């Protein structure tokens, strides 16, 4: 059929007298071959019935390259397009809906045509279903309106030249001087300027290439205005639908793709699912994907270990469980190159690829086995630590609990002297001595060891004889040092006992009872240098006075260390501790504090100082203390001392004295038996005090009562002769 000029009507010969006319709204230019339908929109009236196999109209599609592999699809499955372009019904139909949409595709091009049925009712397969457009959004042919605005279909990615005429709206009234006005998204709203309308003819043009993945549909508004621009009809919706082109490759978005399958899994076990995304229209074959495995690495033991469901993308195993054996595989990790192709997998489809990694997981189907039935170890008595490593073999995956070994001593360890742990790197059993062995008690030990895995074995596998082993242990005799009994050794002595006094006789024994060795003794540590020991019989005696008040004594206990040395070659030594608890004797006289006091010469309070006393000895050789002044008589009786408590006394003046320095003899006596007395001079400075300042710098020469001096001298002579 030859295209007519714009506005001309085209008669289509039809066996149905009810189809009087078809109005051509979208036209093809005669200047060049434009791939697609040469007529895109048809109008027919709803007949009483569409008769089976009777031509309804003829469609002309030209891809400008010979129409290789041309096929048609109709939105209503009750219709088809014959190879010659005739649209026919597949059966007698009374209702076909308001529109039919015919999709044509060849190896070089594709396009969409629309057949509008005047008087038809909504039917499945309508445009709104094909393009998933909500009810009421399509500008189908409107009745009783002056504006006829049928939907316009435009393929995406059209090439220049632009602008390109794509359709027309009609003013059925044809009011003189009226003009068309177009508005909406794509005209005066972003993206602005994509469409325009000839205000006189109603011709719609697209000004640039469209992208369906960006905007699949445009809803524009058409109005008719008078010469002043005032709207006189409308607005009416004009739907522009962007026809999808296959311009997007499938993409795998969710990588990396890693799947796991247990070794020995049955044939058909699902490993993982591969899902690709195609941005093209999901209602078309442009986004209909098919999956395929392009390559498998490695290709052993079979080049086809796996199969992928071409529609779902599920990867499953296709080999027998026996071939899915991790221990016999060259590599338990497989890499599959997965292809996703759109156009339902046709050769013209676009391709996307991704790598799927499949790991054959290990199960515990191989028990660990000792490399030999009997191991030997030699260990010295008295030492601890690892003495032998027990090696095993396990064919399972070293990164799993199916390989990691757990060792247990099941016999020969009643004293819990042995312990076995697993080396995490080598999987060996490290057998250790945790309690020192004694050659004199037992020179040989035999242990029975079993090995298992952290994970349980699969049900049809069991541990065998090779999972147990014997360890023969030989204990070597060493020269052990003598041992003191008891240790520590304790004794109680009074301090200041005579030099040469026996403190204690120690005793040490040699554990090496089979060697019949002699033992000698020596001092190891004697901090104060008070002790000596007989090297033969172990008798300890004093070489100096023991002093409880010494800084080497702590909490009344003096500690010294002694050695016992056997006659072995080389000799071995043992160390013993002696703790001497010292009892106190009254060997320290008390001392007073302070020994200096100051008082104002005009003081109203004649109390001079409070004296305290201390004693290094222990109770009862300390307080209560007795405080005394040397005797005073006559006019020199000016001092007084008064007891406050068991440890303190008050020194006071009986009258004010002149500014001078005074030395007062003070006697203090403890409560020991016999008691000890200390005679100490208390220096008292009598100072002048003015304006809260004490001046002791100009004190007269020392004033000491003659009577006090005579009495003090007499007391000293008395003590000497006594």
From TrEMBL:
It is found in: Cell membrane; Cytoplasm. Its main location: membrane. The chain crosses the membrane at residues 701-719. Coiled coil: none annotated. InterPro entries: Cadherin, Cadherin-like_dom, Cadherin-like_sf, Cadherin_CS, Cadherin_pro_dom. One of its GO terms (cellular component) is side of membrane. SMART domains: CA, Cadherin_pro. Keywords: Calcium, Cell adhesion, Cell membrane, Cleavage on pair of basic residues, Cytoplasm, Glycoprotein, GPI-anchor, Lipoprotein, Membrane, Metal-binding, Repeat, Signal, Transmembrane, Transmembrane helix. Residues 154-252, 253-370, 371-484, 485-592, 591-702 form the Cadherin domain. GO terms for molecular function: beta-catenin binding; cadherin binding; calcium ion binding. One of its GO terms (biological process) is calcium-dependent cell-cell adhesion via plasma membrane cell adhesion molecules. CDD domains: Cadherin_repeat. The keyword Ion transport does not apply. It is a lipid-anchor; GPI-anchor. It comes from the Eukaryota. By contrast to classical cadherins, homodimerization in trans is not mediated by cadherin EC1 domain strand-swapping, but instead through a homophilic adhesive interface which joins two elongated EC1-EC2 domains through a region near their Ca2+-binding sites to form a tetrahedral, X-like shape. Cadherins are calcium-dependent cell adhesion proteins. They preferentially interact with themselves in a homophilic manner in connecting cells; cadherins may thus contribute to the sorting of heterogeneous cell types. May act as a negative regulator of neural cell growth. This is Cadherin-13. The gene is LOC112106846.
């Amino acid at each position: 059929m030859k295209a007519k000029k714009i506005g001309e009507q085209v008669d289509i010969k039809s066996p149905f007298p009810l189809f009087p006319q078809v109005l051509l709204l979208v036209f093809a230019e005669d200047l060049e071959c434009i791939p697609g339908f040469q007529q895109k929109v048809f109008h027919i009236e709803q007949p009483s019935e569409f008769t089976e196999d009777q031509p309804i109209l003829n469609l002309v599609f030209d891809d400008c390259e010979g129409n290789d592999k041309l096929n048609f699809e109709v939105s209503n499955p009750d219709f088809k397009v014959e190879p010659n372009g005739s649209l026919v019904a597949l059966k007698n139909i009374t209702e076909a809906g308001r529109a039919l949409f015919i999709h044509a595709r060849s190896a070089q091009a594709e396009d969409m045509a629309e057949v509008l049925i005047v008087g038809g009712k909504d039917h499945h397969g309508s445009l709104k279903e094909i393009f998933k457009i909500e009810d009421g959004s399509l500008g189908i042919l409107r009745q009783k309106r002056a504006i006829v605005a049928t939907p316009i279909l435009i393929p995406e990615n059209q090439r220049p030249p632009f602008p390109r005429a794509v359709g027309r709206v009609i003013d059925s009234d044809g009011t003189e001087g009226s003009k068309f006005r177009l508005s909406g998204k794509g005209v005066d709203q972003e993206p602005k300027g994509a469409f325009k309308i000839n205000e006189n003819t109603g011709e719609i043009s697209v000004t640039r290439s469209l992208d369906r993945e960006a905007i699949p549909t445009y809803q524009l508004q058409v109005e008719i205005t008078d010469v002043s621009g005032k709207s006189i009809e409308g607005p009416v919706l004009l739907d522009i639908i962007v026809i999808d082109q296959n311009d997007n490759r499938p993409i795998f978005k969710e990588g990396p793709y890693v799947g796991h399958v247990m070794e020995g899994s049955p044939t058909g076990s699902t490993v993982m699912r591969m899902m690709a995304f195609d941005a093209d229209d999901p209602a078309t074959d442009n986004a209909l994907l098919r999956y395929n495995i392009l390559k498998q690495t490695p290709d052993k033991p079979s080049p086809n270990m796996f199969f992928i469901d071409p529609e779902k993308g599920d990867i499953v195993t296709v080999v027998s469980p026996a071939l899915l054996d991790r221990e016999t595989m060259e590599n338990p990790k497989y890499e599959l190159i997965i292809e996703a192709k759109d156009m339902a997998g046709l050769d013209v489809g676009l391709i996307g690829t991704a790598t799927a990694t499949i790991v054959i997981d290990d199960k515990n189907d191989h028990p660990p086995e000792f490399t030999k039935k009997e191991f030997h170890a030699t260990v010295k008595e008295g030492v601890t630590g690892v003495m032998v490593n027990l090696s095993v073999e396990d064919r399972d995956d070293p990164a799993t609990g199916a390989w990691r070994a757990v060792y247990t001593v099941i016999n020969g360890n009643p004293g819990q002297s042995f312990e076995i742990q697993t080396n995490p790197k080598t999987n060996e059993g490290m057998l250790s001595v945790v309690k020192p062995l004694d050659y004199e008690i037992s020179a040989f030990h035999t242990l029975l060891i079993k090995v298992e895995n952290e994970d349980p074995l699969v049900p049809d596998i069991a541990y065998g004889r090779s999972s147990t082993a014997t360890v023969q242990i030989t204990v070597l005799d060493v020269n052990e040092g003598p041992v003191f009994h008891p240790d520590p050794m304790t004794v109680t002595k009074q301090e200041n006992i005579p030099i040469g006094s026996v403190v204690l006789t120690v005793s040490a024994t040699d554990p090496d009872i089979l060697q019949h060795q002699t033992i000698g003794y020596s001092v190891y540590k004697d901090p104060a240098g008070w002790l000596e020991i007989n090297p033969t019989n172990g008798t300890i005696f004093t070489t100096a006075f023991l002093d409880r008040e010494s800084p080497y004594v702590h909490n009344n206990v003096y500690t010294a260390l002694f050695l016992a040395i056997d006659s072995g070659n080389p000799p071995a030594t043992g160390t013993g501790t002696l703790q001497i608890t010292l009892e106190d004797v009254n060997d320290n006289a008390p001392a007073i504090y302070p020994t200096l006091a100051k008082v104002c010469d005009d003081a109203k309070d004649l109390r001079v100082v409070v004296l305290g006393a201390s004693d290094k000895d222990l109770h009862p050789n300390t307080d209560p203390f007795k405080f005394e002044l040397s005797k005073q008589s006559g006019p020199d009786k000016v001092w007084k001392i008064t007891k406050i408590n068991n440890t303190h006394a008050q020194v006071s003046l009986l009258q004010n004295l002149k500014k001078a320095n005074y030395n007062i003899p003070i006697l203090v006596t403890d409560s020991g038996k016999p008691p000890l007395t200390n005679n100490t001079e208390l220096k008292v400075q009598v100072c002048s005090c003015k304006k809260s300042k004490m001046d002791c710098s100009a004190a007269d020469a020392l004033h000491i009562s003659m009577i006090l001096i005579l009495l003090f001298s007499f007391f000293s002579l008395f003590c000497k002769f006594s």
